[in-house]
Amino acid sequence: MGTKLYVGSLPYSTTEQELSQLFSQHGTVQSAKVITDRYTGQSRGFGFVEMATGEEAQKAITALNGSELGGRTLVVNEARPQEKRSFGGGGGEHRDRW
């Protein structure tokens, strides 16, 4: 399994293909995903790229973090594991107090 990178501050027009091409200059890209709003389909301005090896991931971070794409300064770092989210309306523990 490769190393997953977080890519922030993407121009909203960036496609997954463009993201993959940008990172492929620094190693083998296993996947590239631009995160979109589930209701509008618009880019949320960030994404994830999975590089084949840790060395290639580090090379991409060094080369691309702080670089400019479409007038925006990219933020590139190793992705943190996704936090578990609770689903539902929330406030369940407080419901009994009222």
Give me the count of strands. Answer: 6
Q: Main β-sheet: number of strands, strand sense, barrel status? A: 4 strands, antiparallel
Give the second-level CATH assignment, the architecture: 2-Layer Sandwich
Would you tell me the structural class of the helices and strands?
alpha+beta
CATH class: Alpha Beta
Catalogue the unreliable spans.
none
Q: Give average pLDDT, whole number.
A: 90
Strand order of the largest sheet: 2-3-1-6
Tell me the β content: 25-35%
SSE order, as H and E?
EHEEHEEE
Query: Separation of termini?
Result: 49 Å
The CATH topology turns out to be: Alpha-Beta Plaits
Return the domain count. Answer: 1
What can be said about this structure in brief?
The chain is α+β, with helices and mostly antiparallel strands and 98 residues long.
Topology:
Blueprint: E1 3-8, H1 16-24, E2 29-36, E3 43-51, H2 54-64, E4 68-69, E5 72-73, E6 75-78
Q: Would you mind describing this structure in some detail?
A:
By secondary structure, the protein is α+β, with helices and mostly antiparallel strands. The protein has one domain (3-72): RRM (RNA recognition motif) domain (Alpha-Beta Plaits, 2-Layer Sandwich), CATH 3.30.70.330. Helices cover 20% and strands 32% of the residues. It is built from two helices and six strands, in the order E-H-E-E-H-E-E-E. The strands form two sheets. It has a four-stranded antiparallel β-sheet, with helices on one face. A two-stranded antiparallel ribbon has the order 4-5. The relative contact order is 0.26. The model has no long low-confidence stretch (mean pLDDT 90).
